[in-house]
Amino acid sequence: MTRRLPSRARVLGILLAGYAGLSAPAFGETLRLRAGEHPDFSRLVLDLDPKAGWRLGRTDDGYELRLTGLAADIDSSGVFEKIPRSRIADVTLRDNPPGLAISLGCDCHATAFVTSAGSLVIDVVDGHPSPDSPFEAAPASSPEDEGGIATPTLPAAQPTFRPAPTSDPRLAFFWRGAAPRESAQAATPNKRPKLRHDQSLSEPAQTRARPLTPRMPDPRVHQAEEELLQQFSRATAQGLVTVRPGTEITIGESEDTVRTEPVIETDHDAAQPTATMPEQGAPIHAETAIDRDMLLPESRNPVTADGATCLPDESFALSSWGDERPASVQIAERRGALVGEFDRVSAVAVTDLARLYLFLGFGAEARAVLTELAITGEDHALLLDLAAILDGWPATAPGDLAPMADCDTAAALWALLSGPEAPRDAIIDGAAVIRTFSGLPAHLRRHLGPIVTERLLALGHQDAARAVRDAIARAPGEVGAALDLVDARLGFAAGHADAGEASLADLAKGNGPLTPEALILTIGSRIDRGMPVEPDLAESAGALAFELKDARLGPDLARAHALALASGGDFAAAFDAYRRALRITSDDLADETLQSLFRMLAEAADEATFLSHYFDLRSDLADTEPDTLLRLALAARLVDAGLSASARDTLKGEAALTENGRRLMARAEMTDFNPQKALDQIDGLRDAEAESIRAAAHSMAGNHAAAASTLEALGQTGESAKEAWRAGDWVWAAQGGAPLMTNALNQLGLTSQPTDRQQVPASEGPPGEQTSLGNARSLVERSRVTRSAIETLLSATEAVPGG
Question: Has this prediction a pTM greater than 0.90?
Answer without folding.
Answer: no
